[in-house]
Amino acid sequence: MPRFLPLVALVLLSAALINCGGKGSSATQPIPNVAGPWEFIAYSNTLGSKATGIEVALQEGKTLINGIYTPSGQLSASSAQIAFVTLNPTSGDIVSFGGPCAATATPSSSLTPGSVSALNAPFTFTFTENGNVFNVTGTLAGDGQSLANGTYTSQSGSACTDSGTITGMVVPKLSGTYAGQLTLPDGTSDSATATLSESSGNLTVNVVVTGTDNASFTMTGPVTGNSFSVQGTFQGQTVEYYGYCEVVKNIQSIYFVNATNPAQPAYAGTLGVPQT
After folding, report:
1. Which of 50, 193, 198, 248 has a Cα-to-Cα distance from 71 of 20 to 30 A?
2. Are 84 and 52 spatial neighbours (Cβ–Cβ below 8 Å)?
3. Is 60 in a helix, a strand, or coil?
4. To 5 degrees, how large is the angle CA 32–CA 35–CA 37?
5. Total Cβ atoms within 10 A of residue 167
6. What is the pLDDT of residues 204-235, one digit of tens each?
7. φ and ψ at 223, to 5 degrees?
């Protein structure tokens, strides 16, 4: 009988190791890295047929673990890293730059605080649109690239009372060549080709125009999500354009507004990816 004791002990030890292994396999899921360009779209229940594009260069804090900096799950965006556009909720086409909520006496914009802990887990943040504050709750989808089951509501006492559903997704960097008619700062409308390239939150737009004006000029400036503001020089004049990347009739396009006179921004044209 004693000769079988080592075998019994071995079986019991194996079982114990299997159980320990099972526990060890359920390691804590690392906090996902969600920093980067995002577009959140808020669909209003109270502001009529309006949708707000919240264009964000989302920032995420880092924490030092075992000598390695890893995502902390703490999210934010400063006033220079967030922009708002008003969209057609059906087509997704841009209606205007700036959200539908009127500015308050302190018209700041930002995103903070925000937090995320894991995939398929709560994804929450607070955003301020022209001084109006809103709370967002949702779930970071399993792909780590989108917001699911999102809702938003204005904080108590807000000058802009609103609530509704909200979606969100990571958007690619702006790039590529777009062509069409563009109204220039001198008022002429010429055929234009614009080539976009984005790096480190900054967009470069190289424009070549032919027609009444045969010229080329370059504009640069910050980009947040699908929205941007670029400045340059055309015929010795400093110019500024706002832009937004959208899909028009299944064609990737860039919507331009001449904002050289910020008090009177004027639609300048929509350039699309050339079709072959």
Report:
1. 198
2. yes
3. strand
4. 135
5. 16
6. 999 999 999 899 999 999 999 999 999 999 99
7. -125, 135
